[in-house]
Amino acid sequence: MNAALASAIPAAELLTDPAETDLFRHDVYASGPAPLCVFRPATVESLATGIGAATREGIAIVPRGGGMSYTGGYLGPDRPFLLVDTSALTRIVEINEADMTVTVECGITWKELAAALRPRGLRVKSWGTLSGINATVGGGMSQNGVFWGASGGSLVDAALSFDVVLADGTLLTTGSAFFRPYGPDLTGLFAADCGAFGVKARATLRLVREGAAFAYGSFAFDTPEGVFGAMAAVGREGLAAECFGFDPFLQAQRMKRDSLASDVKSLAAMMKAQGSVFKALKEGAKVALAGRSFLDDVPFSLHTIAERRRQADADADMAEITRIVEGFGGRQIENTIPKILRASPFPPVNSIVGPAGERWVPVHGFLPGSRLVEGWAAIQQLFAENAAAMEAHGVQAGALLAVVSPQVSLIEPVFFWPDELNPLHRHAVEPAHLARLKGFAANPASTAFVGQLRKDLIALFQRLGAVHVQVARSYPLKAAHQPEGWAALEALKAQLDPQGLMNPGVLGL
Ligand SMILES: Cc1cc2nc3c(=O)[nH]c(=O)nc-3n(C[C@H](O)[C@H](O)[C@H](O)COP(=O)(O)OP(=O)(O)OC[C@H]3O[C@@H](n4cnc5c(N)ncnc54)[C@H](O)[C@@H]3O)c2cc1C
Hints:
binds flavin-adenine dinucleotide, single chain
């Protein structure tokens, strides 16, 4: 252990036993070198002191939130580094209902934050990822992401200001706590930086009132033209709080994963928590009655949620969504999936592995509504060219689709393949679920093949002009910038982190 670190950081905040620190060198997809040790600060002051002490010794800093990413964002560089685990920084500093803002320490999870806000009828504008049982506000602000409240933008659109610990241990506040931007957008510069500019200690986020009335709609489509046309049109109208879909493969798989009994249980739990036992019983009965067979012959599916103050408004939005979707050949099916998901927005992350314990990795691209069909066709062409090798390696692919804004939607192909699980998977999956998985032997050949296919897919997304969140060490950012723009980012990095010690290598900096 480095003596300067040991004297600057309380022993209780340092993990040095390799049996404990090994977990931190694996992400959902890959593994990296071991850190010198893991630093789990209990306070923001300690975070700043520890970072300053490490960088004075020339030790690099790699921040980690919930560890739910798969783009190498916290897999360290090939040089000594301190892994900063933010999981003890979970305080809610202030819920300011008068000004509709919330300030939190960045290690809080989206699930914890939602639970604190819900009794007050509040939520953050974009309120988390499906991984929010573990994923943190700091991870979301540093990597960006989309899911809950996507109609309000991506995660970083909810940010007003950050308190960031810079490389020298200084604490910088990036902006006003109630309006952004006041002049050039410093908060925006730190958003989605993957920790390259500093470690976020606190975030002040915009609150909105949570909807009191919901309407749900699910639709089946026979063709990609239908589903993507409908997504783009629903996005343009801004009627859905969430609008997401599955391709035929993921559709079938989703049905294999969870039991109907767990659907009904999670739905009933939410309804009861909202104080409506009668509605809980009624909705639970409806879901049970619908079963899961309604999805048997569905090629593509799209699921939408309208969230408003009054039921009549939510119903009117859903009627309009239905009219639009039917214009693209969509036919209504049971709305079990959006109901279940909204009832349990941050489920256990058992889907981090496939139904039999296969390995899993998503790759995504954001494309404007007008280019979704072309994008989908190009991806299918890539898979067709690789069909024989995919079969030989036991690689299967599905896709998650989601509307993100009036301008853009997400296509997220997901690979499954046989290989053994890593310590992070075994840590994150519920023990009872883990015990039921068949599991697979080590299979480096198939994993290497997926690695190549993943690279080919990212290159394809680049040719399509797609953009990405979760850039980290996986998506090429430099190529998307004009030289002048990239030079500005490099100059900022040099100013904030002259020794290049803050998460070296992320963003390609
Ligand atoms: C089951 C599952 C479901 C998912 N669902 C979604 C989804 O719906 N939408 C979506 O967009 N993504 C999703 N993801 C991907 C991932 O969970 C998100 O990107 C999430 O935001 C990661 O947050 P985290 O706290 O786990 O960050 P980590 O994985 O710990 O870190 C992510 C990056 O942020 C940096 N970082 C973390 N904390 C800080 C900090 N305080 N300061 C500076 N840098 C920091 C890390 O260095 C790293 O580069 C999912 C993943 C899984 C496994």
